[in-house]
Design goal:
The chain is mostly helical. It is built from four helices and no strands. α1 packs across α3.
Length: 85
């Protein structure tokens, strides 16, 4: 999976979780929750949906590490690499 493919998946899941948002407006270093005005419940649903879709597990202590599109993509890419080893 490429970073571009991952960004498409992220945008699709964000749109499902928060249909009133426009994930296309996210810049790489924007805080996802703040920019899209997503509450904590939707943020949790988003992470769970990403985990299920991508076959990764994001522990709760890592939630604070994935606040921007860049950090989220890097985090997931690293997780996917670790799984494939």
């Amino acid at each position: 999976m490429t970073e571009d493919e991952l960004k498409i998946i992220i945008a699709d899941i964000l749109k499902q979780i928060a249909p009133d948002t426009d994930p296309a407006k996210l810049l790489p270093d924007d805080n996802i929750r703040e920019k899209l005005e997503i509450d904590s419940f939707d943020a949790l649903q988003f992470i769970v949906a990403l985990d299920e879709k991508l076959g990764v597990e994001t522990p709760e202590q890592d939630y604070g590490k994935i606040t921007t599109l860049n950090t989220l993509v890097s985090y997931i890419m690293d997780k996917k690499k670790a799984i494939s080893k």
